[in-house]
């Protein structure tokens, strides 16, 4: 245990333990599987919102294609995290695969904000330990919550709303960091169309496809607009 | 597919999908990460996805027929929005909204 690094990850500990427990409780309340499946998911998937969505996908017995698409698009923001760490992880050897695997929102924010020396190998070793500590907190949270949910009986009707609440919170965070409402309206509208036009099994995928098409059109429109402006000025 | 096969297949697929989102930039995007289309989609897709997930799952958690008109899901949702704008504490917003939704469902407050 590296005391200085442990202190650095304390805020993540306080975030991951309760969120992991919330997932664990949700898992045992909604599903009939053994409680230890919850920490196994924390070990292999290691994604907060992803695992909470997973509970509702398992409850609905979603098909594997829908599972892949839903998990992929929910975590699509991670596609852009790696881009800022390409150089930092270069030459990390056997540690690199785990560093990439463990790149959650929280790990990303720690790794990109901490001060670094020029000693790259030493810094990569620290990155590795930070990621490892974070995942340990997450798995312990998942196990605690699932074990509690399994052994303390309570009426859990309606607990699945945690998923809706989580998505509302994440949407507000997106709005605050973007400062633009349009992408949120695009997503909401795409979902509305999918809900009205498609059977329940295809609504999620349909809405994602619609929203992506809308963003591509928006990109083309902006590019043409910029080209026009340049033509007028030049 | 029996339950055990399903959960094993599920965990494998979910693990691969999540890992793919984290590994793709290191495998493929190194050279293209300055492409404006990629930057545009990367900037706006996460927000669009969150909004569409809110709408899809909100629609599934409410009773939309009279006399509730979705109030059973909308009341806790408004609470989540208000709390989160006020305190910006994710866990507080989520727990409060869920507890209120559970209370409404379990006491049939809105659907009488």
TrEMBL record, chain A:
It is a multi-pass membrane protein. Pfam families: AzlC. Keywords: Cell membrane, Membrane, Transmembrane, Transmembrane helix, Transport. One of its GO terms (cellular component) is plasma membrane. It comes from Marinobacter daqiaonensis. Coiled coil: none annotated. The chain crosses the membrane at residues 12-29, 35-60, 128-148, 154-175, 182-198, 204-220. Signal peptide: none annotated. The keyword Nucleotide-binding does not apply. It comes from the Bacteria. It is found in: Cell membrane. Belongs to the AzlC family. GO terms for biological process: L-valine transmembrane transport. This is 4-azaleucine resistance probable transporter AzlC. InterPro entries: Brnchd-chn_aa_trnsp_permease.
UniProtKB/TrEMBL annotation, chain B:
The keyword Membrane applies. Keywords: Membrane, Transmembrane, Transmembrane helix. It holds the Pfam family AzlD. The chain crosses the membrane at residues 6-29, 41-59, 65-86. This is Branched-chain amino acid transport protein AzlD. The lineage of its organism: Bacteria, Pseudomonadati, Pseudomonadota, Gammaproteobacteria, Pseudomonadales.
């Amino acid at each position: 245990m590296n005391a200085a690094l442990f202190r650095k990850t304390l805020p993540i500990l306080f975030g991951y333990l309760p969120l992991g427990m919330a997932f664990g409780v949700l898992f045992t309340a909604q599903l009939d599987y053994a409680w230890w499946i919850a920490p196994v998911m924390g070990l292999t998937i290691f994604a907060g919102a992803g695992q909470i969505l997973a509970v509702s996908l398992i409850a609905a017995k979603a098909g594997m294609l829908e599972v892949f698409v839903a998990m992929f698009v929910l975590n699509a923001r991670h596609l852009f995290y790696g881009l800022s760490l390409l150089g930092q992880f270069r030459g990390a050897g056997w540690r690199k695969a785990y560093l990439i695997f463990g790149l959650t929102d929280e790990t990303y924010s720690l790794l990109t904000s901490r001060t670094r020396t020029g000693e790259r190998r030493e810094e990569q070793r620290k990155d590795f330990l930070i990621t490892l500590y974070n995942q340990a907190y997450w798995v312990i949270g998942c196990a605690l919550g699932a074990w509690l949910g399994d052994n303390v009986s309570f009426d859990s009707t309606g607990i699945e709303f945690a998923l809706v609440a989580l998505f509302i919170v994440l949407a507000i965070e997106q709005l605050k960091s973007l400062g633009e409402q349009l992408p949120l309206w695009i997503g909401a509208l795409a979902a509305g169309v999918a809900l009205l036009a498609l059977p329940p099994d295809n609504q999620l995928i349909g809405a994602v496809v619609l929203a992506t098409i809308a963003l591509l059109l928006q990109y083309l429109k902006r590019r043409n607009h910029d080209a026009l402006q340049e033509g007028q000025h030049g | 597919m029996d339950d055990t096969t399903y959960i094993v297949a599920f965990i494998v697929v979910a693990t691969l999908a999540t890992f793919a989102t984290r590994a793709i930039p290191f495998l493929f995007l190194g050279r293209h990460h300055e492409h404006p289309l990629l930057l545009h989609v990367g900037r706006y897709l996460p927000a669009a996805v969150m909004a569409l997930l809110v709408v899809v799952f909100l629609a599934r958690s409410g009773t939309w027929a009279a006399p509730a008109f979705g109030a059973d899901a909308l009341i806790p949702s408004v609470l989540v929005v208000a709390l989160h704008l006020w305190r910006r504490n994710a866990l507080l917003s989520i727990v409060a909204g869920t507890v209120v939704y559970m209370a409404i469902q379990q006491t049939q407050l809105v659907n009488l």
